[in-house]
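Hello,

Our lab assistant flagged a job as stuck in the queue for most of the afternoon. It eventually completed. Since we weren't sure the result was trustworthy after the delay, we are filing this so someone can double-check. Below is the sequence as submitted and the structure that was eventually returned. Let us know if re-running is recommended.
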Amino acid sequence: INPAAGPKAVRERIRKILSQRDLLRKYGMVGLSSQIKVVVETINRIAPTDISVLVIGPSGSGKELVASAIHNNSARAGKRFLAVNCGALAEGVLESELFGHEKGAFTGSVGRRDGLFRQADGGSIFLDEIGETRPNMQVKLLRVLEGGSFYPVGSDKAYRTDVRVIAATNRDLLDAIAEGLFREDLYFRLGVVKIILPPLCERRADILPLLYHFGEREGLDGYSENALDLLVKYDWPGNIRQLRNFVSRAAAMKGGGEVSVDDVEQFINEQGLGPKNLPVVPGHTAEEAGHELIYHALISLGNEIRMLKDLILANLPSKQNLNANEEAKETPAVALSGSVEDMEKELISSILKITGGNRREAARRLGMGERTLYRKLKKYDLS
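-- returned structure --
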């Protein structure tokens, strides 16, 4: 809020902030990012209507929560809201699940069964991962969307239904259209309104509110400052689902205590994901971060070579062993034991000795900015 903008502008800004806060609460959303605020404002405008909606976002970003919020705040709220993952079912099974089947329509169909479109009549249906459907299924979905009619499997009788369709996808449907894998007419029919849910790494302002939201639900005492710093830097490739699972795991492991930085590091290491998902120190470019990783790997490799060398020298005559040991003393080694902070402290100390105390050169060799190095020198009392 900028007071210099004048009283009227300040009042309008305050009104908007309070309105967005109320909308977040109303629709069960948590966050502070501009992206999530746009989402709730869009839901607020379209929920009372009956138009089709396409929710676009990666797995675990909260697409079903958006669909549920739209249904629960529409005129259909008193009717059923049914969801199905189109990518989890084979085409034949999906057709039966959506449209139902007649007795004897296929092997094992001992009775007639209503599909989701009939069960949800008057309500809403959520078609998750719509991009995974086959062209034959897409034709049948288009018929329902345009005329409200469908044929159960094994039936030549058309049934009518009044259902609001909310679909979701984690892939680029325009690419699928270009490849001939998705019907363009169905895309435009589904996406009358599109709601974009960016990955969590693109809306980091939502991470802290989500951590506290789920932490309160799980009974956690909180997070240490270093733990929070690492959690906000982490990319969360599994998005909100992964974050919620982390909090649930922490609550189970800690028994409601405070989450430490060691807990976070252990969790990240156990994810088994590539370096692109590791947190990067602020102020680093991707190239600098890569240089730092490579440099640390070389230091580690050098230490392993020294250990192997010591093992070999142990079986050499004492004179040769003495000469080799004298030579090895010229280059300081970094211990491989202890905590990550202990190893980092020893690494920085070793590089400073090699550079004769030249901090600029030390920072360059370590692949970090000078300001970052100064903070670490102060942290480890190396100044």
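-- support follow-up --
The delay was a queue issue, not a problem with the job. The result is valid. The longest strand covers residues 164-169. The radius of gyration is 29 Å.
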